[in-house]
Amino acid sequence: MRAELILGLITAVLSTACQSQGPAVTPSPLPTVAVSPILTPASPEDRQRASQLRSQGLQSRQAGQFPQALTALQQASDLDPQNPSGFVLLGWTYHLAGQAPPATQALQQALALDPKSVQALNALGIVYLVNGQLSLAVKTHQQALALKPDNEIAHYNLSLAYERLQDYPLSVQHADKASRLEPQNPHPWVAMALAYYQQGQRAQAQQAYHRALQLDSRYRSAAYLGHLKDAGFSPEQIATVRHLLANL
């Protein structure tokens, strides 16, 4: 996902670890994935070693060394199995490595330990979105919003999910909320432009896309739009944005 999102997840993990204007959401329960049993609390020595391993894993991940990163982060979670933040970091790293099943399982483990972890819900929702599990992505991000209504990550990804589900008004609504919560990020404006474009509102689409260009002029290049993959856009969505750009 985009750099701002990744940084936000990393910061949330290492540190522990505008209210919504729409009607209150009562999300449906998420399906569960088999998780490891909760083990005996870690000793102080094991917690310290786990912290060191998480730092090593993060450094390896930043260097693009995913096998080494995953080995270190898995060892950290084995040593400190009651630390939900460790499982968020592990699950997000599996996601970045393109391994959706273990990413899902690690993030479900984090939620088993802390059902109110917004970071875990955000990350799990992104895993579902990127892998085309749209109904699960929607339910997961709705749960995150129920816990934190001013959650720009959830609003942004709901915009992308609803666009793929062809619910364009809801897509616009969530993109608008994300843009208000994170006004210097061009991605919600591109998502808003996409949803407007899909429902035939070309003037609004052009206006939203011009706002994205004001924030990042690189989106004037059709070649640069491939970068949207890192921001959660599907290949089909990127193709439509390219068509939108060609018709500005």
Could you characterize what this model shows?
There is one protein chain. With about 250 residues, this protein is mostly helical. The protein has 2 domains: about 1-20 and about 40-150, Serine Threonine Protein Phosphatase 5, Tetratricopeptide repeat (Alpha Horseshoe); about 155-248, Serine Threonine Protein Phosphatase 5, Tetratricopeptide repeat. The chain has helices at about 5-15, 45-60, 65-80, 85-95, 100-115, 120-130, 135-145, 150-165, 170-180, 185-200, 200-215, 235-245. The chain is elongated and about 60 Å long. The chain starts with a helix and ends with a helix.
Keywords:
248 residues, mainly alpha, 12 helices, Serine Threonine Protein Phosphatase 5, Tetratricopeptide repeat
SSE layout and pairing:
Layout: H1 3-15, H2 44-62, H3 66-79, H4 84-96, H5 100-113, H6 118-130, H7 134-147, H8 152-164, H9 168-181, H10 186-198, H11 202-215, H12 235-246
Helix pairs in contact: 1-4, 2-3, 3-4, 4-5, 4-6, 5-6, 6-7, 6-8, 7-8, 8-9, 8-10, 9-10, 10-11, 10-12
Give the low-confidence spans. Answer: 1-34
Number of strands: 0
> What is the straight-line distance between the termini?
26 Å
User: How does the helix and strand content classify structurally?
Assistant: mainly alpha
Give the helix proportion (percent range): 55-70%
| Overall pLDDT metric | 88
